[in-house]
Amino acid sequence: MDTNTSVFAVTNADNDDELEWIIEPTDFMLLPEEENTYFVKAKQVYTDRTIDCFIGIMTPERIAETVIKKNKDGHAAVAESIYEQENSVIPAVASNCFGDYTLYYSKENPQIGIDILIGGLYNATNKNTVAEDLGYILRDENRVEEAIEAFKISEEVGPSSEYVYLELSRLYKRLGMTKKQSEYERKFKKKGGIE
């Protein structure tokens, strides 16, 4: 695989061995919304370092199942299940399609995914997608003010759902900002939200 390309499109997956699939380089800077399977630059995350690899992702659902990396000798490529990895493997590029934010959440070193998403915000077509992924990780890391900033980006461009308002109300509650908490609870309910 060309190491300058971040996203490869799978054009033929007729073989059971992912290493035999036919792929084409793309000029995508983020994972696109269109339905396909892609191999995306990724990072296997340790507490003190990362190892470059690739992750197979099906869009638009953002389902990740396969990791392509060098074998233990560092010579040949191997395809392994993402579920068999001892350490987190996260995409090294943000996504223009919605999905589970934990795709970018590495417990070993959450800052790696945070940095990837912050970098992706500048190139994102759907800034709300990237901002929401970022907001949820920052929330889980108890970085409340930064999480609010991320969710506010989503609010400005159009949130994916009313639950962004619920997240904002809960974050403001954690800061003791009851007026803001109430404001976002009202927005949540006005948009049809039910807890």
Automatic annotation (TrEMBL):
<protein>
    <recommendedName>
        <fullName>Tetratricopeptide repeat protein</fullName>
    </recommendedName>
</protein>
<dbReference type="InterPro" id="IPR011990">
    <property type="entry name" value="TPR-like_helical_dom_sf"/>
</dbReference>
